[in-house]
Amino acid sequence: EKGGFEYFMDKEIQEQPDAIANTLRGHFDGTSILLDEQRLGDDELRTIDKVVVVACGSAYHSGLVAKYAIEHWTRLPVEVELASEFRYRDPVLTRDTLVVAVSQSGETADTLEAVRHAREQKARVLAVCNTNGSQIPRESDAVLYTHAGPEIGVASTKAFMAQVVANYLVGLALAQARGVKYSDEVARDFADLSAMPAAVAETLTRMDPVRALGQELVDAKAVLFLGRHVGFPVALEGALKLKELAYMHAEGFAAGELKHGPIALIEEGLPVVVVTPSPKLRPLLHSKLLSNIREIQARGARTIVICEDGDDIVAPFADTLISLPSVPVLMQPLVATVPLQILAAEIARARGFDVDKPRNLAKSVTVE
Ligand code: M6R
Q: Measuring from atom 10 of ligand 1, which residue has the nearest CA?
């Protein structure tokens, strides 16, 4: 069943191009985005004035990524909430709030309770879920299924990718229903998404240096992850993978926060993974991140730089350079997450841990 791979997670990482393609399939008819099993009509989508994503763990990170896209595309405010915090703080919800509950399993207790709370407050609830007929979609007003296929490894990989894609579809559907985007623009964004299975497949062919790096970092005491814009939630996701699989201290930061505290952590040889934006598409962001890389390198950090193909500006400051296919800004998380998954799995393997079944963790967390 593992298809020749040592772990299910290895196989699931390789299945990510299919997870993206299958999640997109059937959701654009050439004119409009179609949300499946939709019981929210265009009229209802039109009245939405705020989006709140609720989720846990990697699913929460998929919401953080999508916030950049949904706000940009719809001009609606998007909040992203940890499901376990949501209902305890008396969130502001109305009939015109769209709550998007993201869950691979559809059984996560905190997310389910957030759904129940949102419905009591009369918000509209859309589940983004990978498991047919599970509890969260059953209790929601509508559901958009991710089609990642069953995920056995405890660490979320292909499910996370599919969640990002599904959240993006929600953003495009809202933008179109609100009249902020016309069909031709939606068609362009959908084409960008449709090009991602190939970009992720290409990324997967370049991972040997990442595996080698994993072997080198087997005894690291800690690893930091930095990013800006969509690279920030990618950094959080990379750190979560490393914690749960390799039991290593790992933290993700917004690179701009470095000098507000975290830079004090930098010492000789500390590995720091930096998710770098495109120098062509985001020159300002790129130059800010470059100064962050220079700051940490000057203090002895070992810089591991994830960047776009042909980024000669950052290359001299990278102790290890991992270059990925060039993609549109909002698509970068779909390629940049891949090396972080492989790095975590490789370090865990080198440390002799079971990559599919990390200690103390369950695939679905059905207690609060
Ligand atoms: O089934 P869910 O998507 O609701 O699960 C949420 C989290 O428990 C899950 O993403 C967890 O953080 C993963 N093990 C991370 O790899």
A: 58
